[in-house]
Automatic annotation (TrEMBL):
Residues 1-60 are annotated as: Disordered. It comes from Rhodanobacter glycinis. This is DUF2058 domain-containing protein. InterPro entries: DUF2058. Pfam families: DUF2058. Residues 19-28 have a biased composition (Basic and acidic residues).
């Protein structure tokens, strides 16, 4: 009759059943509700060194260095592009000023000119008004047409060639004097239309 309570529980089988339930609970992964929440407003506690794979801290440092290097490289690239754009703008301004000085007072356009001379420039048909002598000189290649500030200026061949050496796309019309006077399509260049 001196059986203890423990011995009585073991005999009845209740204790064995409780021990098996505890073993099952330990094998099951913890559910989110059973895990203690992380500290409020902070990071979850770092895993112990034994649980952390070797080199993990080094990977984080390497990743941070990689991001810093990438950001620095991108900043240097942006700076280089901005410098190139500024240099291109400066060169354009210098060319424009040089052409302006070259053309200043050298335009041969006449207000009383009544004959239109059509030419193709920039994918469109353009027109400059000339007199009979200028038309003959233009078609012979002695004169050229330069586009500046939205206007088409009639200038001597030498001026047109100088403009062409500075900025070739501003020369709207400069006939080759050695050409036979026929266009690629078989139509004479000086045909009035």
């Amino acid at each position: 009759m001196a059986d203890s309570l423990r011995d009585q529980l073991l005999k009845s089988g209740i204790v064995k059943q409780v021990q098996q339930d505890r073993v099952r609970e330990q094998k099951r992964p913890p559910t989110p509700s059973s895990v203690k929440p992380a500290r409020m407003g902070g990071k979850p506690p770092a895993p112990s060194r034994a649980a952390r794979p070797s080199g993990h801290g080094r990977e984080e440092i390497d990743l941070a260095k990689a991001y810093a290097i990438r950001a620095q490289t991108e900043a240097n690239e942006r700076k280089r592009i901005e410098q190139e754009a500024a240099e291109q703008a400066r060169l354009r301004r210098e060319r424009k000023l040089q052409i302006q000085q070259l053309l200043d007072g050298k335009a041969l356009n006449k207000a009383e000119a009544d004959q239109p001379r059509n030419f193709e420039y920039g994918g469109k048909i353009r027109r400059v008004h000339v007199d009979a002598a200028q038309l003959a000189a233009l078609n012979a290649g002695e004169l050229g047409v330069v586009q500046q500030g939205g206007r088409y200026l009639l200038v001597s061949r030498e001026i047109a060639e100088q403009v062409q050496s500075i900025d070739a796309h501003l020369v709207a019309l400069l006939v080759d004097p050695n050409a036979d006077g026929m266009g690629d399509d078989g139509v004479p260049d000086d045909l009035m239309w």
